[in-house]
């Protein structure tokens, strides 16, 4: 994840057990508290009407053509609350990112192969949602962009780092990271519970969130988004919370 490997590397994952890189490390080990809680029910007034209204707007813009299933945006999970892993606080909130020089940092500590592959697929200038994970109320708080494509994650070679990997070799590094830069806060906090309500409605009626990885692969701290998924979730910032 994006911070000095000490503080942020772990906090970014959505899993409780994997605290490393602010975003990705935790992914496999533990699921987001709320994401895995089956008891969490979506708020009343599911999203069918919202999906239909959004669809009408999109169709008027695109002539009704369906977009191809291509991942061009991302969702990055990071832990906004303090949690120690091997003596290192893995907390890294969007406010921490904003406090970095040039509001930019590296996204280190990812130790899940699928998440690493997603990192390697990221392209310069692509945008991602900054998602607060493993906290009282998980959800999307802002937008960042990729400002440097994948390169070796230095924390894999640092024996003092919680994400040290003794099996990785400098001539053939196992793990990668990217640099991200703060773009803006979302106009409002978009909670997981609200996104889940839309996901459940779309799963039933074929809306854009029907296959969203936030629910089908919830433990991954780095997740790809289609253009439709990104656009729909972004449209939620204009709506009043339920």
Label this structure with key terms.
242 residues, alpha+beta, ph1033 like fold, 7 helices, 8 strands, disordered N terminus
Approximate strand percentage: 15-25%
Poorly predicted regions? 1-49, 62-67
Radius of gyration over all CA atoms, rounded: 17 Å
CATH fold call of the domain at 73-236: ph1033 like fold
Number of helices: 7
CATH class of the domain at 73-236: Alpha Beta
Shape: globular
The span between the termini is 32 Å
Going by CATH, the architecture of the domain at 73-236 would be Roll
Please state the average pLDDT score. 81
Q: Main sheet? A: 6 strands, mixed
Percent range for helical residues?
Answer: 25-40%
Instruction: List the secondary-structure elements in sequence, H or E.
Output: HHEEEHEHEEEHHEH
Count of individual beta strands: 8
Helix-strand makeup class: alpha+beta
Largest sheet, spatial ordering of strands: 4-7-6-5-1-8
Query: Superfamily at the CATH H level of the domain at 73-236?
Result: ph1033 like domains
Region (Disordered): 1-66
Protein name: Thymocyte nuclear protein 1
Organism: Stercorarius parasiticus
Biased composition (Basic and acidic residues): 10-28, 56-66
Structural write-up:
This is Thymocyte nuclear protein 1. Residues 41-52 have a biased composition (Low complexity). Helices cover 25% and strands 23% of the residues. The chain has 242 residues and is α+β, with helices and mostly antiparallel strands. It has a domain at 73-236: ph1033 like fold, CATH 3.10.590.10. A hairpin with a 2-residue loop joins strand 2 and strand 3. The model is unreliable at 1-49 and 62-67 (pLDDT under 50).
């Amino acid at each position: 994840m994006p911070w000095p490997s000490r503080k942020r590397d772990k906090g970014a994952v959505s899993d409780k057990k994997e605290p490393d890189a602010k975003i990705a490390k935790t992914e496999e080990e533990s699921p987001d508290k709320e994401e895995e809680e089956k008891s969490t029910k979506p708020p009343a007034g599911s999203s069918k009407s919202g999906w239909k209204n959004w669809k009408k707007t999109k169709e008027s813009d695109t002539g009704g053509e369906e977009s191809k299933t291509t991942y061009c945006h991302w969702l990055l999970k990071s832990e906004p609350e303090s949690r120690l892993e091997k003596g290192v606080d893995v907390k890294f909130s969007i406010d921490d990112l904003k406090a970095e020089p040039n509001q930019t940092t590296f996204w280190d500590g990812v130790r899940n192969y699928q998440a690493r592959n997603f990192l390697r697929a990221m392209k310069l200038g692509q945008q991602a949602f900054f998602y607060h994970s493993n906290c009282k109320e998980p959800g999307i708080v802002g937008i960042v962009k990729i400002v440097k494509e994948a390169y070796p994650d230095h924390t894999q070679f640092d024996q003092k780092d919680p994400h040290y990997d003794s099996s990785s070799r400098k001539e053939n590094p196992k793990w990668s990271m990217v640099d991200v830069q703060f773009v803006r806060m979302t106009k409002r906090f978009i909670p997981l519970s609200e996104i889940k309500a839309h996901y459940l409605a779309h799963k039933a009626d074929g809306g854009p969130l029907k296959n969203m990885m936030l629910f089908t692969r919830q433990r991954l701290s780095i997740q790809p988004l289609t253009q439709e998924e990104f656009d729909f979730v972004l449209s939620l910032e204009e709506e009043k919370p339920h």
